Hints:
Low-confidence stretches: none
Number of strands: 17
Number of domains: 4
Shape: globular
Largest sheet: 6 strands, antiparallel
Mean pLDDT: 94
Distance between the termini: 27 Å
Number of helices: 17
Structural class: alpha+beta
Amino acid sequence: MSCLADFAFEWSVGDSHFRIALHHQGTDEEARALARMCEAITAEEEGVFGAFPKYDSGAYTFLIDLLPYVNGDGMEHRNSTVITEATTLRESQAGAADTPAHEFFHSWNVKRIRPKSLEPFNFEEANMSGELWFGEGFTQYYGELTLRRAGLDSLDRFLGRMGGAVSNILNAPGRTVFNVIEMSRRAPFVDAATANDPVNTRNIFISYYTYGEALALGADLEIRARFPGKSLDDWMRAMWRHHHDSDQPYTLADLQSALAEATGSVDFAAEVLNRHIYGKEAFDFKALLARAGLLLEPEDPSAAWLGNPRLKFSAAGAELTDASLRDSPLYNAGIDRGDRLVSLDSHSIKSENDLNGFLKSHQPGDRVHVSLESRAGKREVDVILAAAPRLHLITYERAGLALSTDMLAFRNTWLSSKAIHPLPTLEKYCPRCKRAFPFEYSTCPLDGATLEITPSTAEETPSR
């Protein structure tokens, strides 16, 4: 039976020391599994930089609360991280390692490799930085890459996250408005500040976490494609060599110099910064991902799309509570915030089920007659449905395409472990057949049961 418990665990990787203090509702076996996940994360992320930071207290500490009544958050510090998640280990399984992987990477990137724009930090005013795409976005990429490299995440789950980030930035109208530096400078407005008047954020802003994550993916694959034997890891190591403490903060020019050093090409570094950082151009993700035998394609090209409106449903219809997305069917028809959709082709729209059911019965290109109410009174307009633009990322194998040996080698080099020290052996267990499987599996390949991070009971010995 699960109960409220405190759990502590310590380990060393090379000469560096780590500990976890966990407050949770669960068993010691589940807590120990999370501790071993964190152990794998520390060893894997050391491999990116080649060395751990020198922790001021002599050790790094993970302080984690996994309790259903807390507010979820993660905060990085120089020598520790504080993480709260409204869940239990049994519910979250390997997902409990997501935030530790992100926050631990911050012990290099942001806490020591630190942008000059944040120095000296002012606790009484907004601290605007144009480098959050690197500090947070690249960290987001490496947190997820770490889980895959360490065998804590399946390939499909990793690709789902990468595909989601790429889809978001390629389809977001904000990418044509601000570059990633300007997106970073909007942090005070999206993280805490509020406005008295309605804002048009969804048409002008992309999270610097997501934007930076996609940039990191594109830069990593571009470097690997053009400079065999080199990768984004080399760029991070160059930054660590020259800016390994907050007393040596970096600028955008320093980022460019480090990229030139990592690749041996001043021209390439200038190209990346000018086109993708100072500029608004996206990487050619489709071509780059194809080198790894990965297909970027529309998730459902036959699905009819209205524009992902944010709606408040009632008996009177569906009211737009936020701006319609630029160039979406609603936007092109002149329908915007405050308008209420009463009916589509005489079908009442009183719930999300009503809307989804209507869209499922239509195809992209269909013309739909909309009855709506706005501040100007009742209106009748036609909307031409579009194809859902969301993209997803799948392997060539799953798409039924031929995977070459070069593609597989490229993929394996990218996603294989970079740990300097041995990783702990982690397994998941099938509650039906009692067998153990590699940790990245989510379901039993023999009977399809959902795998668990610990055996069903302490007495059972898994088969192999």
